[in-house]
Amino acid sequence: MKIPEVPTIAISSSSNSPGITLTLESTGILLGILVSASLLGTMAVQLITKMNRISSSIAQIEEVMKEHARDAEKIRQIEKTLDLHIQEYVNRKDVIQMVLGQLDQKINHKFKRLLFYTRDVQRFLQKDTNFNIREYEENTQEE
């Protein structure tokens, strides 16, 4: 079996001169290496681009999370303030109800004393004079 000769692209006539002899096979290998290197470079650029996008997304998510944390703290402070205002309202309501109850008791007490005084005066007038006591009815309807 005979080994086929590899075709030669460039031939140097002097054997002393330094240089590279390129054959079709070595050119194919060199082109394969260059294409593979460019493919690897492209893939590396795509990978770096994706990693940059992911890093940017993570940074944005961190900012949003920090903002949510600040908002949550504000909500907690507002809730505390609201609780204080509600407690103050309840306390004021209780005080007002207590004061109104006391006023109602005072009014009833004064009314009863006035009623007793009025009856005493009526008895005195009936006893010493011919005074007639009329009973009045409250009419809420207009005549």
Give a quick account of the main beta sheet: strands, pairing sense, barrel closure: none
What is the number of helices? Answer: 1
Spatial separation of the terminal alpha carbons: 143 Å
Helical residue percent band: over 70%
| Helix/strand class | mainly alpha
Low-confidence stretches: none
* Total count of strands: 0
Estimate the global geometry from the Cα principal axes.
Answer: rod-shaped
Quick check: average pLDDT? 85
The gyration radius over C-alpha positions equals 55 Å
Order of helices and strands: H
Beta-strand level of the residues, as a percent range?
A: under 5%
Characterise this structure.
By secondary structure, the protein is mainly alpha-helical. 73% of the residues lie in helices and 0% in strands. It contains one helix and no strands. The longest helix has 105 residues, at 24-128. The chain is rod-shaped and about 165 Å long. The mean pLDDT is 85.
Secondary-structure topology with pairs:
Elements: H1 24-128
Name the descriptors.
143 residues, 1 helix, mainly alpha
Briefly, what is this?
This protein is 73% helix and 0% strand. The longest helix has 105 residues.
